[in-house]
Amino acid sequence: MELKTARLTLLIDPNKKVAFERLCAQQDLTPSQVVRQLIRDYLAQHGVQYVGSGLIASESPPAADVAPPGTKPPSRHGAPVPGKRRTGLKGS
After folding, report:
1. Half-sphere exposure of 50 toward its Cβ, with a 13 Å CA cutoff?
2. Which of 9, 13, 11, 16 is nearest to 81 (CA)?
3. Would you give the distance in Å from CA 73 to the centre of its chain?
């Protein structure tokens, strides 16, 4: 099981959402559990491999996720998001 999480926001028809939540409750599952399983199944169906967050140190990430020796991996934080206004910057 992964230890870190990220948020996925999606838009869905309100009536479909209610029906989905009811079905999940009947199966004693949370909507998040079901969506995570759907994503795992979809990735597997298309042969996409990934390394879950929080795995033990002896397991290494796929080569594509490893920075070449002597370089820093690109930061995933602070990159501008299209359509979003950055706030809290010096001088603003």
Report:
1. 13
2. 9
3. 19
pTM, to two decimals: 0.56
What does the pLDDT profile of the chain (92 residues) look like in tens digits?
Answer: 678 889 999 999 999 999 999 999 999 999 999 999 999 999 999 999 988 887 654 555 554 444 445 545 444 444 454 555 555 555 54
Write the single-letter amino acid at 7.
Answer: R
3-state secondary structure the chain: CCCCCCCCCCCCCHHHHHHHHHHHHHCCCCHHHHHHHHHHHHHHHCCCCCCCCCCCCCCCCCHHHCCCCCCCCCCCCCCCCCCCCCCCCCCC
CB 52 within 8 A of CB 43: no
